[in-house]
Amino acid sequence: MMTEALEAIPFECFWGAAAAVVALLLFLFRKHSLPWRFRARVTYVCDGDSIWVKTWYGRRVKLRLLGIDAPETEQAFGGMSQIILARMIEGRRIDVAAVDRDIYGRYVSALLCDGEDVCLRMIERGAAWPYFHYFNRMPRDVAQTYRHAYEVARRDRVGLWQEDNPEAPWNWRKRHRLWWTRFVFWLKRVLGLC
Question: Is 148 exposed, middle or buried (0-12, 13-18, 19+ CB in 10 A)?
């Protein structure tokens, strides 16, 4: 009886259904092409330049803020940088524009919260350095705005600029990175994993 019912269905329908299932699976498990724009809710602020968000469809994504480098948590002003970012965006809805992925798998992203550039606010408050490494992935006027905000914050001794000579996070990481951490990053690059 069942075989008669199956024989009555044209063979092409099976291929159509199979193609639809495959297309749906590819859509659900695809790697997003960049730039990737979406709205999300901030669920956790890891430090002054990394956050976890939850997308509208429930996916958790880790983001690295584009154009800034905040002090590490163990570094002077690192905890304060995290608190400043958390007060600004934690639990709130943000607009995300992911432009790249870093070696840790985080999406390097520009963020807007209530129409304001979150990264620019971090620089203005002296909670982060502009991360010149990523300036080539930003519009020229945005990069110039970041650079100007950095110069003003430094001149006015705002936030971390209250210290005479604060150590940049990239220099701090170099001094504190262990040899095996460097080896793991080198191995990932050689194997093409990042």
Answer: middle
Q: 106 an active-site residue?
A: yes
Does the active-site annotation cover 121? no
In this predicted model, what pLDDT tens digit does every residue of 24-72 receive, in sequence order? 555 555 555 556 899 999 999 999 999 999 998 899 999 999 999 999 9
- Would residue 31 count as lying in a domain? no
pTM equals 0.75
Domain that holds residue 93: 36-175
Considering 30, 60, 72, 93, which one is annotated as catalytic?
72
**What DSSP character marks residue 136?**
G
CA distance 147 to 167: 18
Query: Is 182 tagged catalytic?
Result: no
What's the domain count of the chain? 1
Query: What is the CATH number for 147?
Result: 2.40.50.90
**What would the two tokens of residue 88 be?**
């600004």
Q: Is 117 among the domain residues?
A: yes
**157 three-state secondary structure:** coil
In a domain, 182, yes or no: no
Which of the residues 60, 64, 155, 173 is marked catalytic? 64
Catalytic pick from 4, 106, 116, 154? 106
